[in-house]
Each structure stands twice: as C-alpha cells, then as structure tokens.
Design brief:
The protein has about 90 residues and is α+β, with helices and mostly antiparallel strands. It has 3 helices and 4 strands, in the order βββαααβ.
Length: about 90
C-alpha cells in the first residue's frame, strides 16, 4: 500500500512512509492527518512546512527517492531542533 501525504513541493505530491510528529501530539499523521495537522499548527511547530522547505526538489525522482529524501530530512530536523520533541514515525502496511 502506498501512501501520499498531503505535502506538496511545487506542483508535485511527495510520497512518504516516514514522517515527524511531536511527543505531545496524540494524533497519527498518517491516519488522522487533519487532527494531527491542526494540533501541530496550533502549537506552532509547522512540521509540514519545515519538512517541505528542506526536501530537495526532485522532479524526475522515483517515489522511492522521495521517500528516502523525506526520511533523511526527518533526521536532520530532529538534530536541528532538539528543543522540540520530534519523533520519527512510519506508516505501516
């Protein structure tokens, strides 16, 4: 099962199985995206924007390359913002 998170870089939707959430957000960013997003934005994390701004535009990339790029960006964000209790989560099949 493939999953397309509602994340756009330009006109391209990026596919991912890895994502960031915060320890204080009880919602699943994959299965409860609207509630997760609302809480994330309300707390000022803006996780979708943080990730989208760091993903290198890869117009000709295969979906697997997008997934790898997002996975790497998640790791970078965790290191860059240690004051925010980010946790990397994965979409399960």
């Amino acid at each position: 099962m493939e999953f397309v998170l509602n994340l756009k870089k330009g006109e391209k939707e990026l596919m991912t199985r890895a994502w960031l959430t915060t320890k204080d957000n009880p919602f699943d960013p994959f299965d409860e995206f609207d509630a997760w997003y609302h809480m994330d934005e309300a707390h000022g994390y803006h996780t979708c924007n943080v990730i989208a701004s760091r993903v290198v535009d890869s117009d000709g990339a295969f979906p697997e390359e997008d997934e790898q790029a997002i996975d790497e960006v998640c790791d970078q964000v965790i290191k860059e913002f240690p004051q925010i209790e980010y946790v990397k989560v994965y979409k399960k099949d």
